[in-house]
Amino acid sequence: TNKHLSPIEKLEQSEPFRFFLTTVHGISHIHNQSNAMSFKEILSTQHGQLVRSAQFNYMFDIEFILEQYPSEFRLKPLLIVYGDSRHDNHSLKLQSSPYPQIELCPARLDIPYGTHHTKMMFLLYETGLRIVIHTANLIEQDWKQKTQGIWISPICPKLNGTTEESKTNFKKDLIQYVERYRAKQLQFWLKTITEHDFSNINVHLIGSIPGRHTGPDMNKFGHLKLRQTLKTYIGLENDAQYSSAPIVGQFSSIGSLGATANSWLTKEFLTSLKQLNSSALESPELKLIYPSVENVRTSLEGYMAGGSLPYNIQNAMKQGWLVNFFHQWKADHRQRSRASPHIKTYLRATNDQYKQLLWFLVTSANLSKAAWGVLEKNNTQLMIRSYEIGVLFIPKQFSQSVFSVSDSPAFPIPYDLPPVKYQSTDKPWVVDIAYKNQPDSHGNMWDPS
Ligand SMILES: CNc1ccc(C(=O)O)c(C(=O)O)c1
User: Which of 55, 125, 301, 342 is 20 to 30 Å from 142 at the Cα level?
Assistant: First the structure.
């Protein structure tokens, strides 16, 4: 239908998952209606009277951000939480200096090569508190022609009764995550979270905090938090029935993963994704979705999309073994095969028909040890370099045994399943080498030198 849905109607139609992709300039209207939301629609006056907000992110264009807020909300207090990585914070201070309503909060990055990757909004309304967890930088190009993921919480009402925690421990986990910034500018928001009722939240929080986590802290963040959550809420009873159920990882960048798959990917990381004790016989298939050069060349943005896929040649050369795991970016059912992915998702299907899912995670975390953590000191500490955050959907929390991909209430998957392998001529996109043999969809070549 060419019906134009309001932001409120979009939220109602997205129940019970509340999981959206960003709207895309250049695709048909209908594919920007169902389970799709723009930055302006997230901030629409229809949601209520905004009091103040906080924006956690990696890249910021302050003029662009303010323009997305309705004019009557532009002067409300706005806290910007960014990675304190010495260098380019100067530009953020310059951008923000004309706006007294903007306060800056540096997130400490004490471990080298860490980034403040977390993309999250705190929106305080007169009626309550909304949390948005997503994958887009706060710059125009991240919201225009890419595939990005967004989870929008209900507006959590101010506390008056006793029920306040969600059945997924989301409130406690969010407080534990924010406390780890140890930032005075976040004290107001910690107090605000405490004062609101999160009992209607049905997703689990999976966050990463930089550090060397040991003892009771080991399972609080990164891939061990995912392992612990899957183990607790999916349970081993599925062990035998699903031990070969396929797992999919989909992301927009890749770190240095070691000389072989066993170095980290299929030993440590896959053990967390399969959550079954490592004694389970056959290891499940792991399929990785990462754009090929052809996916980037033919995308709506052309080779420019590759600027947001910062997989470098130095790492790519060290891990040629990874190519065997790669599958193309393909999203025909959402009309987003040409909307280059900046979303990051991980999922487990029940079998190789991919008609049902055991769980689904949307997160800021790419395929890297920096994001997920790496076990050290004989598996007694988990070392994480970056801040990350995501939400995990588990069928039990939706009174289902599995998620259906097709039957209502169908889980709105962002890409086509089963994943489609690279063709023999396909290469993974690498950001810092030239592509001058074939022009892209804009007639341009890519020459980073
Ligand atoms: C080194 N900095 C970044 C690397 C990768 C990404 C990504 O999301 O793919 C981002 C970002 O866009 O936040 C930053």
Answer: 125
Count Cβ atoms below 10 Å from residue 67 Cβ, excluding itself.
13
In the residue annotation, 342 being an active-site residue is answered as yes
Pick the atom of ligand 1 nearest to 308's CA. 9
Determine the Cα–Cα distance for residues 143 and 148; give it in Å rounded to an integer.
8
Region 77-81: mean pLDDT is 98
Give the ipTM of the model, two decimals please. Answer: 0.96
Which of the listed residues 252, 256, 369 should we mutate to test ligand 1's pocket, taking the one with most ligand atoms within 8 A of CB?
252
Q: Is 141 in the pocket of ligand 1 (CB under 6 A)?
A: no
Q: Residue 253 CA: which ligand 1 atom is closest?
A: 9
- Which DSSP helix (H) or strand (E) runs through 84? strand 78-84
How far apart (Å, rounded) are the C-alpha atoms in residues 193 and 171? Answer: 7
The DSSP H or E segment spanning 26 is none
412 cis-preceded (ω within 30 degrees of 0) = no
| Ligand 1 midpoint to CA 117 (Å) | 7
- 132 membership: H or E segment, kind and range: strand 128-134
3-state class of 314 per DSSP?
Answer: helix
- 80: Cα separation from own chain's centroid: 19
Burial class (CB in 10 A: 0-12, 13-18, 19+), 263: middle
Q: What is the pLDDT of residues 411-443, one digit of tens each?
A: 999 999 999 999 999 999 999 999 999 999 999
> Poorest-confidence range of 32-41, 80-89, 147-156, 160-169?
160-169
Q: How far is CA 352 from CA 241, 247, 278, 349, 405, in A?
A: 13, 10, 21, 7, 13
Single out the catalytic residue among 47, 117, 134, 204.
117
DSSP assignment of 82-95 equals EEE-SSTHHHHHHH
Is the whole model's pTM more than 0.95, yes or no?
Answer: yes
Query: Atom 1 of ligand 1 has which residue's CA nearest to it?
Result: 115
Pocket test for ligand 1, best of 60, 115, 116 (most atoms within 8 A of CB): 115
**Which tens digits make up the pLDDT trace of 228-268?**
999 999 875 556 788 789 999 999 999 999 999 999 999 99
Nearest CA to ligand 1 atom 10: 117
In contact, 18 and 145? CB cutoff 8 Å: no
Give the amino acid at 1.
T
What separation in Å is there between the alpha carbon of 306 and the centre of ligand 1?
12
Residue 206 tokens read as 């999976």
